[in-house]
Write a structure and sequence with these properties.
Elements (H helix, E strand, L loop, with lengths): L1 H6 L7 H6 L5 H30 L10 H27 L6
Helix pairs in contact: 3-4
Length: 98
């Protein structure tokens, strides 16, 4: 099953973002990219904190723990935002200084 999941994770650009920014100047795209980098750093920190909390609980529990669910939600949000950031970096064509 893992092999099947990995096969669908080919490089993805978020086409709606590409279309939305197609007529925007580089300066606007750079501002959006810098903000996305800052947000991504915040989301990574949050997911890491929640991971540490989730690791501290009882792993033999039959019901999903609230801390584990919170960690998974934060990680999904982080990766979804990373897709947007990757698209912005592709559009901009470089990594701006933050």
């Amino acid at each position: 099953m893992d092999r099947e999941r990995n096969d669908i994770t080919a490089e993805i650009d978020l086409r709606p973002i590409v279309g939305l920014l197609s007529n925007e100047p580089d300066q606007v795209i750079e501002i959006l990219t810098i903000d996305a980098i800052k947000k991504h750093r915040m989301l990574v920190d949050r997911a890491e904190r929640l991971f540490q909390i989730a690791q501290g609980g009882d792993s033999d529990a039959k019901e999903p723990r609230e801390a584990h669910i919170a960690y998974l939600e934060a990680t999904i949000e982080m990766h979804a935002q990373m897709s947007a950031l990757t698209t912005l970096l592709t559009i901009l064509g470089r990594t701006p200084k933050v």
